[in-house]
Amino acid sequence: MKIIEVADYRALSKVASEIIIKQVQQKPNAVLGLATGGTPIGTYRYLVEDYQKNQTSYHKIHTINLDEYIGLNHEDSRSYSYYMNDHLFQDINIPPEQTILPNATNSDCQKESEKYEERIESLGGIDLQILGLGENGHIGFNEPGTSFASKTRVVKLTESTRNANARYFQSIDEVPTYAISMGIATIMKSKEIILLVSGKNKATILTQLLTSNITEELPASILKTHPNVTVIADKDALSLT
Ligand code: PGA
Question: Which of 82, 30, 97 lies closest to 58 in space, CA to CA?
Answer without folding.
Answer: 30
